[in-house]
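Dear all,

This email documents one entry for the complex benchmark we are building for the journal club exercise. For each entry we list the sequence lines for every component of the assembly. Then comes the predicted three-dimensional structure of the complex as a token string, followed by one or two observations. Please use this as the template for your own entries, and keep the labels exactly as they appear.
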Amino acid sequence: MNRRSLLATPFALPALAMPALAQSAPTEISIQYSIPELFRGLMEDVAAAFMRANPNIRVTIRAPEPDYEAILQRNLRDAVTRQLPDIAFHGLNRQRTLVEREIPVDLRPFMAADARIAEQGYSESLLSLGQVGEAQTGIGFALSTPILYYNVEQLRRAGGNPDSLPTSWEQVAQLARAIHGTAENLNGMFFDWTITGNWAWQALVFSHGGTMLSADERQVAMGQEPGQRAIRALRMLVDEGRMPDMRPAAAIADFFAGRLGISMQSTAQLGRYNREIGGRFPLVCGRFPLSAPNARLPAGGNVAMMLTRDAAKQAAAWEFIKFATGPVGATMMVNATGYMPASTIPAQREEMLGRFYRENPNHLVTFRQQDVITGWYAFPGQNALRITDTINDHLQSVVARRAEPQAALTRMAADVQALLPRR
Amino acid sequence: MPGVSLRGIQKSFGATPVLRDVTLEVLSGEFLAILGASGCGKSTLLRILAGLETADAGEVLIDERRVDALPPKARDLAMVFQSYALYPYMTVGQNIALPLEMRRMSPMQRLPLLGRLWSGGARKAITADVAAVAGPLGLTPLLDRKPAQLSGGQRQRVALARAMVRSPAAFLMDEPLSNLDARLRAEARAEIVALTRRLGVTTLYVTHDQGEAMAMADRVAVMQAGRVLQLAPPQELYDEPASLEVARFIGSPPMNALPAHVDEDGAVMVGEVRLPWISPARGAVTLGVRPEGWAPAGQGIPAMVTLIEHLGAETLCHLEGGAVLRLAPDMARGMVPGQALRLAVQKAVLFGPDEQRLPLQAAQREPALG
Amino acid sequence: MADTRRQPSPRRAEALAGTLLALPAFILMWLMLLGPAVAVGLLSLTDWNFGEPRIHFAGLDNYHEMWGDRVFWISLRNTVVYVGVSVPATVLLGLIAAIAIESVGPKGGLRGFYRAAYFLPVASTLLAMALVWEFMFHPSVGFVNQAFRAVGLPTADWLQNPDTALMALAAIGVWQNLGLAMVLFMAGLKSIPTDLYEALAMDGADGAWERFRRVTWPMLGPALVFVVAITAIRSFQVFDTVQVLTEGGPLKSTEVLLFTMVQQGFTFLRSAYGAAITMVFLLLTLSITLAQTMILDRRAHYG
């Protein structure tokens, strides 16, 4: 199915081109998303705005799933029972699993056939985040990168300067240690290595110039020199930075309460951090330290994915995807969350997000990291998700100081190698 | 010599008095039956003696030693329960051996598993004693079985064996035969009497069955509503009941109670018929006549036959007014319901208005007239 | 001759009627119990991953993989340890509680209160209770550590420490099953005839220990076997607390069979492999049930 065949269908063209005429036969599409605490209000607003602009298309929102794992399972089940939503928003690193099961529809033909695609303002690097192999699996809706959140009060008390934040993990560790030393019952930092899909570990390895696997995906590459530096950096945060081995939820709560100085988290959490801190102390965001010339950072967040195979619904779904990920949807999304959009247009326009970014420089940090952004890596084969769990265990043993970094990395690499598909 | 004494025992369950001042002296070696309907307090009395209940008032003595404050095991009594109360998870042999183990072996020797290491000698002696008591009761082939594999009669004998295996100061038996069928009960009755006689141990035997009590006991204590009505050898109980209550309770069919009076001369009259006895009492009395204590005669008390029961060895003639006449089958031949009779009383007891027995003497002058 | 022809017919009719009457139960049993078990068994012989459009027969590959799977063995070991700790503790504490409550006597209605109090955890949803326990085990403000600190015992971050997490979960398991064990024991205690204790007293034993050892304990045999079997099966099924409190961690220290199964089958999407683990799990619970039936048939019935 591509744009040309779509145009050939008798109803699709009038429906798209002349909404008023098509009112008698509205097209219905269903969408599904996850993480309602971040996206519920936003999705409802976007759908409402879309329907106002496209009165011939009715959008129904399915009950959201709690997280990326849950919506993945839900849609896999739906695929078996043939009850898939027409559009779903999936985590970047879940695209591969869905593609392996032939669930998403390739968006390349729609883009190629759409004369007004340029008006969307998609940046090539951000579009690449929705690609698996040759296919455009999805289009980035809400994208994030890892950053460091600093409590400015504690930063100052420890002798730091919010205008010159640390640029290396050594500096971060020193600052954390200094913060830890300023008061009882105060932790310097927490690096949330538990974020789903080994996101934080990928960030550490990529930012040291490494990769998870070799280019042909047959050999584990994380055990090489960049990975070794990455795991040592993690342990240094524990040893030198006095990072505690605690649950991330507790650490985040501590940060909100002013009992934690530095928090490594996704930019996705920025809106929540602002809300929860509520101005009790000034918050400043800093870049994730890049530790190699070829450093990269994995993007987080989700893409809008087309799942329907019905031609009329596909046409309507494509309109919705464009709306949600385009300038209008992107503006709404940024205002509601800390994510960044795949469209570059809103940031350039004063009436859209230009002013917002100027007034909220913390939101700009992730924008500045765009140049090093890369995909959220998903492992190949049937054990993809299990590999994630295995890596987590080894990371934990390092953070809990139950294993030496090098030994843990060696075992991690071996375990992951054993779980890769044998060809 | 008294074997067991219960003196002035009182007991209430809540507000319900169960025993009201019961005193019993049981002679050493005596077989004493406590007879009463259910609820009369006889089992409670036995349990107080055993130490399973405590009396509200009164004294309990065993071999003239006060035992009120002692726990059951210190009273040196053995009890046979109505349900037998055999330990279902132990073999017959273990059931019989337990009282010996508890008395002869130290706590160390009784330890589970480990105790076996240092109790060999004691255990051997116990096994021998168990075999000695099991043999005469026919339990030898059953020693390795569990109670569930035994018949009712066999279980009853195991319960007996468990009581007998050591020589207690007294046996207490609480309706031990009530769960057996009639034929077995008759057998077991003789068996128990023979065994207790042979051992010569004081035995208290609680039963509601007067046949058992009369057949087995040296003396019978008749209880009712928490009191002992009479304590006497069976024949005396039958012939000379102390009160109308006892008279009604003992014997089947019970003693006939005929309204009577004593005239100024002391002559005992039933209606217009003068009986051959005199009494120091005067006025309205009750004459107690056993069904076999009177017989048809030419003259005597008038009566009318309402129903005739031929029981084989005897015939019972039910009379108008509820009295009963017991006859040898020969004598009853030709008798029909509706027939009018005259009955001559040969043997009787007299009860006053308070239902207690009154003295009765044979009249000097006249021969038995009826 | 005619008789012999007619004879089998009523018998056949009877057999037919019997079959017809048993049919609904038979169908339901297959539909609800055996059918799914067989389906899971068949699934375990394939290579199917959740959501995949294709399925292939894979023989015993999944079982072979399981044999070499470190996590499976850790999970099995943890499960056995969990059962091995929580079952004896549940049985022992349940028995003590039952005897204690029975000895309180019926006065004052306290017995009913205790019974309800102990039984409450059995009836409540463990999911909600798990959150309470998470708070109880909180390293600084949790009740457990405060109590331990008060009496000078060492404290720990119980659920976060790989050395203590499984035991902490076992403690919750004991707490949860205690009431059930207690109620079953109380029913068992009630069914002991009092004249056995009286016979024992007459036989020369009336101390608490002798009463327990000679009558209570052996008479509780059937109840004990049942309690052990039911708490063992319930312990084998431990999942909620793991899912809510530890997610198998830290460092797989609370990875238990059911959790591994769910994780493989649903989180990791390895449906066929999860099915294979389910078969092992079924085998284990089945063997407990069989053992219980056999022991009860052989020994614990006193007729």
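Observations: Residues 261 and 284 of chain B are 4 Å apart (CA to CA). The mean pLDDT of chain B is 87.
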